[in-house]
Design the sequence.
């Protein structure tokens, strides 16, 4: 019998919209290993992204496998069915060994009173003062507050259980990693709510290895955190402590860790996260989402006239469709239309100006977070170019790959996992 599929202490989700940058992404993990830290790559791509690009989940597995073979990577790696639910899971069952169970849409639908009452009766340990190792103050609840939390989250956890059991039926328990995602919702979960959720997850028999809560503050795509960084550090540390308590109390997997979604470019949070991980000797899963796609555009612009022209064309198309492109991402972007440069003006930009506006350098006066966020969600425009876009990627491969690797290693892996974010 083979050993259960287990997620390592440190892992990084690497999105690859067009499936061309797996080797460049893996190279960043090789650099991390050479520097002394094991960061396991997880290639993630959602049903929505596959639908827009016109790809299929098996293509993500092929790209990952080919990169691993080409670079001689002999450590673990995974392919994530990102943000799936019962209606979309089937195509991911064969190629994936990591499943992000997205139940955010079910949060807030009130669970039936009898199920809420049964949960409260089943968990008297959650009523009153709950001492959690690592927290200065106990978590405080009442029977009524516990019932209110259960009413809000029980149906979501039960839905996660249904998705998990469908995957287990197809792949066998222990043959995949399960993550529960609750981040794409309106309000953050408090540490008390997170503990109640984890108790319910254990009741459902879901051996989750990561959980993605919604944290306080804004986690917009491709730009830095907006909110109280000191408050986030306290919240993150409390959540890590709660996970440890849930492992000890409810028998959840010992490697259970937090997953930070929309973690791309949350530079101001890397030092606080690292301090919390060090304090509790904990792991983390960081999803870098679509920054690879943006590095493709930067590589195209850097490579020469034709690449720059195509990158400008992508921006012009995204600008023309900005409202439609923004709608599905309303919870994770803040784009001020008045701060977007007119495409006619962008046509006159040189490579340095285009790259300066797009590259996330908070110290640069050229950086435009609105321009960057729009292009982050504008990959649909490039997908419609088909072979023309992919052929340009191939022609500019050296510049693109260099930027993809440098971005992932220097801006994400190095500050978070190697320690110079302190």
Sequence:
């Amino acid at each position: 019998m083979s050993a259960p599929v287990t997620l390592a202490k440190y892992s990084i989700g690497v999105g690859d919209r067009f499936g061309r940058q797996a080797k460049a992404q893996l190279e960043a993990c090789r650099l991390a290993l050479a520097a002394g830290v094991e960061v396991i790559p997880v290639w993630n791509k959602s049903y929505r992204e596959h639908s827009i690009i016109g790809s299929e989940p098996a293509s993500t597995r092929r790209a990952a496998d080919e990169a691993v073979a080409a670079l001689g990577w002999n450590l673990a790696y995974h392919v994530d069915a990102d943000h799936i639910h019962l209606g979309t899971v089937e195509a991911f069952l064969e190629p994936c060994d990591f499943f992000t169970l997205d139940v955010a849409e079910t949060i807030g639908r009130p669970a039936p009173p009898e199920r809420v009452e049964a949960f409260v009766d089943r968990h008297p340990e959650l009523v009153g003062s709950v001492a959690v190792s690592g927290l200065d103050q106990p978590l405080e609840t009442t029977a009524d507050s516990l019932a209110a939390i259960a009413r809000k989250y029980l149906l979501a956890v039960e839905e996660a259980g249904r998705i998990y059991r469908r995957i287990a039926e197809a792949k066998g328990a222990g043959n995949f990693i399960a993550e529960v995602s609750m981040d794409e919702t309106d309000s953050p979960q408090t540490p008390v709510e997170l503990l109640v959720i984890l108790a319910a997850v254990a009741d459902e028999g879901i051996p989750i290895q990561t959980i993605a809560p919604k944290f306080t503050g804004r986690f917009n795509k491709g730009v830095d955190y907006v909110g109280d960084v000191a408050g986030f550090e306290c919240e993150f540390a409390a959540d890590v402590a709660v996970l440890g308590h849930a492992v000890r109390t409810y028998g959840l997997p010992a490697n259970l860790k937090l997953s930070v979604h929309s973690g791309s470019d949350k530079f101001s949070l890397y030092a606080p996260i690292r301090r919390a991980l060090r304090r509790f000797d904990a792991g983390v899963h960081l999803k870098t989402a679509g920054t690879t796609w943006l590095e493709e555009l930067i590589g195209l612009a850097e490579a020469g006239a034709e690449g720059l022209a195509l990158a400008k064309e992508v921006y012009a198309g995204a600008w023309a469709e900005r409202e439609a492109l923004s709608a599905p991402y309303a919870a994770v972007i803040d784009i001020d239309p008045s701060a977007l440069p007119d495409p006619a003006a962008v046509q006159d930009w040189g490579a340095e100006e285009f790259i300066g506006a797009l590259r996330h350098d908070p110290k640069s006066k050229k950086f435009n977070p609105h321009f960057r966020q729009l292009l982050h969600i504008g990959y649909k425009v490039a997908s419609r170019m088909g072979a023309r876009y992919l052929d340009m990627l191939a022609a500019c491969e050296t510049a693109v790959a260099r930027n993809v690797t440098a971005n992932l290693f220097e801006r994400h892996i190095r500050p978070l996992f190697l320690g110079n974010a302190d």
